[in-house]
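Bench notes, afternoon.
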Amino acid sequence: MSGVTGRARSSATPCRQGEPIESKAVVGYDLCLKAATKESWYNEWSTMCEVELNQMKPAEYPLAAEMKPEPGYVSTPITPGGSSRTCPITCQVTSKD
């Protein structure tokens, strides 16, 4: 007799069967986090991805300590004002000389 009961053997099997599912989850969460980082778009979903990755693989995915911008913040580019449009084409420059 091997000393391992049928119940002990069957309880060890689900752990191995869950490994492919966990590795797929890690890939998906990692993709989510990389996309959020690339786009600088952080919200409750990117936070969830970060937390889940940290729970599954804490050594590889530590929680970020830095602050992230609030979700929904969109930066507006600085563009030149309309002053060039209001200046007439025939501007004359006078000098003090």
